[in-house]
């Protein structure tokens, strides 16, 4: 009985750090984005995402964005895994691989398969709020049998954590 008590006490004692490692179940991001499309199209807009976290390092995200310049518009809607490193309480780096679609308009409308590969850093303000200092994505678009591989976007904004 004494050995069982010691074993139970040991399991409880060593599991306390694991219980303290909380993570947000849902993160909602919204912010500004700058999009660069080759050869020389730079547009400003917005970026928003919702990420449901399965554990402290893996989640699934839905990402939406819009970029605008001189009557031209580019909207993306992508989904995919997010990998976060939550060992530091203050800074959370993350990486994602998002797949989905894009719609460009402004003299006609074109659709494309889109991919965003990238990541960024969130800085915790408090338990429910963080600032996304930077999110950078390499953007790829596939339309009409052609890959456009030299595009990028950079975003920054706020993250609400639940």
Write up what this structure looks like:
The structure is a single chain. This protein is mainly beta and 162 residues long. The chain has one domain (23-161): Porin, CATH 2.40.160.20. 12% of the residues lie in helices and 70% in strands. The protein contains one helix and eight strands, in the order αββββββββ. An eight-stranded antiparallel β-barrel has the order 1-2-3-4-5-6-7-8.
Question: What is the approximate shape?
Answer: elongated
User: Count of helical segments?
Assistant: 1
Sequence of strands across the biggest β-sheet: 1-2-3-4-5-6-7-8
> What is the H/E string?
HEEEEEEEE
Detail the poorly predicted runs. 15-19
Question: What is the tally of beta strands?
Answer: 8
Task: Find the CATH topology.
Answer: Porin
Q: What is the percentage of strand-forming residues?
A: over 45%
How helix-rich are the residues, as a percent range? 10-25%
């Amino acid at each position: 009985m004494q050995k069982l008590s010691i074993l139970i006490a040991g399991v409880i004692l060593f599991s306390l750090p694991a219980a303290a490692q909380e993570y947000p179940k849902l993160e909602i991001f919204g912010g500004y984005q700058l999009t660069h499309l080759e050869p020389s199209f730079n547009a400003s807009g917005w970026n928003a995402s919702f990420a449901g976290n399965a554990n402290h390092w893996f989640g699934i995200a839905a990402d939406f964005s819009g970029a605008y310049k001189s009557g031209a518009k580019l909207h993306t809607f992508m989904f995919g895994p997010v990998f976060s490193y939550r060992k530091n309480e203050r800074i959370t780096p993350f990486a994602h691989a998002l797949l989905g679609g894009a719609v460009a308009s402004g003299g006609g409308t074109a659709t494309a398969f889109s991919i965003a590969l990238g990541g960024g850093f969130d800085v915790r303000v408090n338990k429910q709020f963080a600032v996304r200092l930077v999110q950078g994505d390499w953007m790829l678009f596939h339309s009409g049998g052609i890959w456009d591989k030299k595009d990028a976007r950079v975003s920054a904004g706020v993250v609400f954590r639940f």
